[in-house]
Amino acid sequence: YRKHEWDKHGTCAATIEVLNSQKKYFGKALELYQHIDLNGHLLKAGIKPSSSYYKMTAIKEALRGFYGVTPKIQCLPPEEGEEAQTIGQIEICFTKELQLVNCVELEGESNPVQAHFKLGTSELSVCNDTLPTYYPSEVQ
Fold it and tell me: Listed GO molecular functions (predicted)?
């Protein structure tokens, strides 16, 4: 997994001095992860991993309120016979200078630096704003 992440994202990051080795790259990723404290911020907004459902718009607004930027949130669609989607991945995006930036503005760029927090799954898609949303404890 680590080799894959380095080959995919790290080689782009290697042009930046603070990220130009595997050790620096993953060390900085951990530092940013702790600094971002995603679960802690969501808890402060009353959004906790649980069996109750949340509105996607409330989750987005809470994160925008804390970070001042729009993250990219991806979900697993509802299982058959269920109504709720499940958050599978939340991406917080940074510029090469490691400033927070809206993820949506980066769609067309070839090399945004992204912090990936994900459940290892391939069927993720952009979350539906109108569906009830389940926030599982495995999301990082």
Answer: ribonuclease T2 activity; RNA binding
Pair type for strands 132-134 and 85-94: parallel
What's the predicted TM-score (pTM) here? 0.74
φ/ψ bin of 81: left (φ > 0), alpha (ψ from -120 to 50), beta (otherwise): left
pLDDT of 98-111, one tens digit each? 899 998 754 444 44
CATH code: domain of residue 93: 3.90.730.10
3-state secondary structure of 104: helix
Tokens encoding 84: 């709720």
The tokens describing 5, both together, are: 């992440």
Amino acid at 52: S
Instruction: Render 35-68 in DSSP notation, one character per residue.
Output: HH-HHHHHHHTT--SSSSEEEHHHHHHHHHHHHS
